[in-house]
């Protein structure tokens, strides 16, 4: 993961932690107006019930209101707290796709690492209760890092060199 990706993920995490707790849901309302039609309102709400509003607390309320003059221009109305607006803006398609791409890359690296003899040997040692392997596994955050650590420590050569020697 690049430094920029790490910074982006850290920023998204901070924004998510500051935003209003979810889960969030989209809710549609219709309000009649004097022309006989309806204002359409889309809300993003939390599941938290707001006692003064008598409904779920809104994260984003977007609606259109009639102006002060008959047949005058419509007035867009939006309600959103700054912390939630920042979070929504940060979770844009590019950010989400970048995280998905990183997850897919890690999954591919893990699949490749699982094919390595050193990985299988370490898994067998872990299942057998070898404490040193448990420590190695707990210190690794991804299979690619695990492979790098094990190879740099010479464990692969050690495992392979002991095969058939008992």
List the helices and strands and how they pair.
Elements: H1 3-18, E1 24-32, E2 38-50, E3 55-66, E4 74-80, H2 82-90, H3 93-115, H4 117-127, H5 131-139, H6 143-152, H7 155-162
Antiparallel strand pairs: 1-2, 2-3, 3-4
Helix pairs in contact: 1-2, 4-5
Write a concise synopsis of the structure shown:
This protein has 166 residues and is of the alpha+beta class.
Protein architecture, described:
52% of the residues lie in helices and 25% in strands. A 4-stranded antiparallel beta sheet has the order 1-2-3-4. Strand 2 and strand 3 form a beta hairpin. It has 7 helices and 4 strands, in the order αββββαααααα. It has 2 domains: 89 residues, no CATH class; 50 residues, no CATH class. Helix 1 packs antiparallel against helix 2 and helix 4 packs across helix 5. By secondary structure, the chain is of the alpha+beta class. It comes from Glaciimonas immobilis. This is Ead/Ea22-like family protein.
In N-to-C order, the SSE pattern is HEEEEHHHHHH
Count, helices: 7
Name the overall outline.
elongated
Between the first and last Cα atoms, what is the distance in angstroms? 42 Å
- Number of domains in the coordinates? 2
What is the helix fraction of residues, given as a range? 40-55%
In percent terms, what proportion of residues is strand? 15-25%
Largest sheet: 4 strands, antiparallel
User: If you compute it from the alpha carbons, what radius of gyration comes out, rounded to the nearest whole angstrom?
Assistant: 27 Å
Count the E strands. Answer: 4
- Spatial strand arrangement across the major sheet: 1-2-3-4
**Mean of all residue-level pLDDT scores:** 74
Low-pLDDT windows of residues: 155-166
As an assembly, this protein is: single chain
Protein name: Ead/Ea22-like family protein
Organism: Glaciimonas immobilis
């Amino acid at each position: 993961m690049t430094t920029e990706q790490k910074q982006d993920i850290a920023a998204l995490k901070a924004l998510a932690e500051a935003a209003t707790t979810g889960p969030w849901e989209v809710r549609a309302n219709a309000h009649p107006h004097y022309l006989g039609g309806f204002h359409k309102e889309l809300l993003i709400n939390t599941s938290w019930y707001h006692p003064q509003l008598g409904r779920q607390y809104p994260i984003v309320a977007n609606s259109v209101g009639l102006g002060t003059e008959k047949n005058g221009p419509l007035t867009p109305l939006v309600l959103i707290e700054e912390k939630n607006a920042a979070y929504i803006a940060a979770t844009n398609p590019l950010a989400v796709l970048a995280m998905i791409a990183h997850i897919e890359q890690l999954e591919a690296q893990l699949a490749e690492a699982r094919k390595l003899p050193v990985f299988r040997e370490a898994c067998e040692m872990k299942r057998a209760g070898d404490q040193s392997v448990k420590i190695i596994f707990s210190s690794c955050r991804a299979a690619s890092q695990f492979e790098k650590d094990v190879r740099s420590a010479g464990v692969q050569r050690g495992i392979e060199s002991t095969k058939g020697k008992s």
